[in-house]
Amino acid sequence: SLLGFKVKLNILSVPLFALAVPMLFSNRGKLRYWAEFLIGFAILFLGLSFLKEAVPDLRGNTDALEFLSGFAGGGFLSRVFFVMVGALVTIIVQSSSAAMAITLTMCAQGWLPFEVAAAMILGENIGTTITAELASLVGNVSAKRSARIHSMFNIIGVVWMLILMPYFLPFLSSVVQNLFGISDPFTNPDDMPIGLSAFHTAFNLTNVILLIGFVPWLVKGAIYSVKSKGKKDEKFRLRFISTERRTPELATVELQKETAHFGEVTSQMNDFTRELINAVESKPQQKMLKKIKKYEGITDKMEIEITEYITNLAGSEITPTTSLRLRSILNICNDLERIGDIYFQISKNLERKIEERLYFTPDQRNGLNEMLDFLDDAFTEMNRNLALPSYNQASIDRANELAKQIKKHRETLVKSHLTRLGDEDYNVGAAMIYNTIFSSMGRVGAHIINVSESIIGEI
Phi, psi at residue 387, to the nearest 5°? Predict the structure, then answer.
């Protein structure tokens, strides 16, 4: 408002184009992103200029003004009507910023009265929540609840502002006149955009101040209105990857968070396997078998979706650093998916043991539990590295130490197993399953250290 309707922004567009277009042909990826950034502003300035010229000057058209004034004089109901108009415009153009620009332009041309335009801006705040609600339809329950909180926040703000608008606008008008040295935006179309922008800013800031203390209630309202479909909806869909287009650098940030989530999901299979090994009753055994199978399917799905997301970035300009990080994430996801497969294979061996009514000796069970303890520590270190904001901060020393412990313990179990194979009380069927399981656990340890190596770039 302070620039766009006081100076000709199209004058700035040409120099910005002249500066940015040569930068597009640079070999440096970051320089090309700056070029796109500048070109975006150049197009924005040019578009606002065209928009301003395209909207007719209706100050001399008394019929149109009379038409508008017919809707503007109905008090609260007229304000509600123009809120709906603003929301409709935003839904049509799919952008509250664009709808705001249109409203400011019409005010600068004298088309809309100040109070009508203010009501439309409130409607645009509601209209943008519809866009968010539509975008969340393909997301998980957290995405839907976030969109719902956004909707409730804006709608509550619009309701109280509609009631207080007859008192709020005159007060704001006097503040803006004193602060910016402009004339009354109620009567001067040239200064309406500044008054409306101040209204938009003041409304949102005041709404935040008023509602920030009620965030827990908004969360409860979102949870109540958006029901969860169970644990699968809560935990096992991608949390951070967006369906919107991202630059590779921003996408990498989301991918690292999603990969950390993938690591947490996979590491839970170690706990399920421990419960299955130590369970003595059929019901908890069957519950863990189903859970491990379910998680194995989840790890498969997560790897596929993350890989597809990275593949879709292949057509973008990617810096060498980002390319290396994306390759690391691909390798990490491959190892995490393989860990899920191994735990599923372990569960199938344990299922066969249950069906054949075989039993582990106390030493065998203790040996497996100790191996699971070592894997727990390795998963904890792996997840710590995956959760770091930058993989450059990761250290592999602790991971290597834990990998050596897992390998050493596996060798100890092998020796003990081979020594006891000739004993009469050493059941061969159970012993073969035992051997397969601790060998598989050793492979899990190898994949965990592979993840840590990929994190620090040893790929």
Answer: -85, -5
**Residues in CB range of 179: below 8 A, 6 or more apart:** none
Of 53-57, 125-129, 225-229, 418-422, minimum mean pLDDT range? 53-57
- Between CA 303 and CA 235 the distance in angstroms is 15
User: Locate tokens 């006097």: which residue?
Assistant: 174
Give me the amino acid identity at 294. Answer: K
Which residue, 243, 386, 257, 259, is CA-closest to 312? 243
**pLDDT single digits (tens) 237-256:** 566 675 555 667 777 888 88
Dump pLDDT digits (tens) for 333-354.
999 999 999 999 999 999 999 9
- Amino acid identity for residue 427 in this structure: N
pLDDT (mean) for 313-334: 82
| Phi, psi (deg, nearest 5) at residue 230 | 110, -170
Long-range contacts of 260-264 (CB under 8 A, 24+ apart): 260/383, 260/386, 260/387, 262/299, 262/302, 262/303, 262/306, 262/332, 262/333, 262/336, 263/332, 263/336, 263/379, 263/382, 263/383, 263/386, 263/451, 264/383
